[in-house]
């Protein structure tokens, strides 16, 4: 069943609100970036830390269209705590004196670091520690 452009927009907004609610993040703390890549729609879900205003990749999903990618992202956020490990990364941006602490869910340390460095030059952040947190 094909949806009208208005229906697609309404459904997209509804799913985005569900994702925000499920993650406990309000407007302005999540950014939904869509782009075409290899004939698919890729959704990069980006979190913005309200304290230091840095943004990080939460997860990306690809789908046939915007709604498909959003639906896959919603399914992911509903189960990711059961499937991925928790990491604590201590880091500092170049020129900043304050050490920052961020938390990531990832399958491994490399994926956690990819999320930290998303959209950045590798030389702009110094990582001091990466810790795999005990599972609860």
Which SSEs are present, and which pair or pack?
Blueprint lengths: L4 H19 L6 E8 L2 E9 L6 E9 L2 H12 L2 H4 L1 E9 L6 E7 L2 H9 L7 E8 L4
Antiparallel strand pairs: 1-2, 2-3, 4-5, 4-6
Helix pairs in contact: 1-2
Number of strands: 6
Going by CATH, the homologous superfamily of the largest domain would be Porphobilinogen deaminase, C-terminal domain
Strand order of the largest sheet: 1-2-3
Spell out the helices and strands N to C.
HEEEHHEEHE
* CATH-defined topology of the largest domain: Double Stranded RNA Binding Domain
- Helical content stands at 25-40%
* CATH A-level architecture of the largest domain: 2-Layer Sandwich
User: What's the domain count?
Assistant: 2
Distance between the termini: 43 Å
Question: What is the overall silhouette?
Answer: elongated
Text of the CATH class of the largest domain: Alpha Beta
Q: Helix count, per DSSP?
A: 4
Low-confidence stretches: none
Rg (CA only): 16 Å
Strand content: 35-45%
Largest sheet: 3 strands, antiparallel
Class derived from helix and strand content = alpha+beta
How confident overall, as mean pLDDT? 92
């Amino acid at each position: 069943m094909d949806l009208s452009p208005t229906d697609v927009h309404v459904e997209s907004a509804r799913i985005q609100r569900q994702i925000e609610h499920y993650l406990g993040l309000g407007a302005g703390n999540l950014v939904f970036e869509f782009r075409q890549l290899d004939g698919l729609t890729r959704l990069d879900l980006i979190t913005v830390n309200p304290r230091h205003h840095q943004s990080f990749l939460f997860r990306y999903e690809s789908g046939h269209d915007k709604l498909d990618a959003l639906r896959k992202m919603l399914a992911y956020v509903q189960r990711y705590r059961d499937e991925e490990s928790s990491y604590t990364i201590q880091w500092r941006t170049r020129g900043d004196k304050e050490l920052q602490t961020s938390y990531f869910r990832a399958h491994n340390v490399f994926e956690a670091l990819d999320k930290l460095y998303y959209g950045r030059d590798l030389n702009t952040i110094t990582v001091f520690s990466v810790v795999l947190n005990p599972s609860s």
